[in-house]
Amino acid sequence: MPSPVVIHTDGGCTPNPGPGGWGAVLRYGDHVLELCGGEAESTTNNRMELTAPIMAMETLTRPCVVQIHTDSTYVRNGITKWVAGWQRNGWRTAAKQPVKNVDLWQRLSAACAQHQVEWFWVKGHAGVADNELADQLATRGMREAMGLTPA
């Protein structure tokens, strides 16, 4: 089994909704890649949490074994438990309502289909080094999107 690409992601807004940012730390052996971005216009925490793993996986140039660590139960539960049903139901929830953030769920689902992905939930702000770094990158992404200097 090949070594996995280990990815930690985070996203958020200040306030929610409001300007937002996302960050991702990708590790493969001795290689580390830090990614971040954001939106100066109004977005939501959930959109930024979804954007981080999408952008991380879309940077991978070939199919990989991927371990994604997120502090978002929304993202982890959505991709591991809910998305298959949403797809079957024409991107409608069990209550027959349109799925929120459908554009991002579709991109995340497509990105996952390219790789062998395992999802892990990690408690946010609990001292996990790469989760803390992903949080810092998300803040930097938001600040840069707003034209502010990094914190």
TrEMBL record:
HAMAP family: RNase_H. The keyword tRNA processing does not apply. Residues 1-143 form the RNase H type-1 domain. Binds 1 Mg(2+) ion per subunit. May bind a second metal ion at a regulatory site, or after substrate binding. One of its GO terms (cellular component) is cytoplasm. It comes from the Bacteria. It comes from Nocardioides thalensis. InterPro entries: RNase_H, RNaseH-like_sf, RNaseH_domain, RNaseH_sf, RNaseHI. GO terms for molecular function: magnesium ion binding; nucleic acid binding; RNA-DNA hybrid ribonuclease activity. This is Ribonuclease H. Belongs to the RNase H family. Keywords: Cytoplasm, Endonuclease, Hydrolase, Magnesium, Metal-binding, Nuclease. It holds the Pfam family RNase_H. Endonuclease that specifically degrades the RNA of RNA-DNA hybrids. Monomer. One of its GO terms (biological process) is DNA replication, removal of RNA primer. CDD domains: RNase_HI_prokaryote_like. Mg(2+) 2 binds at residues 10, 135. Its EC number is 3.1.26.4. SUPFAM superfamilies: Ribonuclease H-like. It is an enzyme of class 3 (hydrolase). It catalyses: Endonucleolytic cleavage to 5'-phosphomonoester. Mg(2+) 1 binds at residues 10, 49, 71. The gene is rnhA. Its cofactor is Mg(2+). It is found in: Cytoplasm.
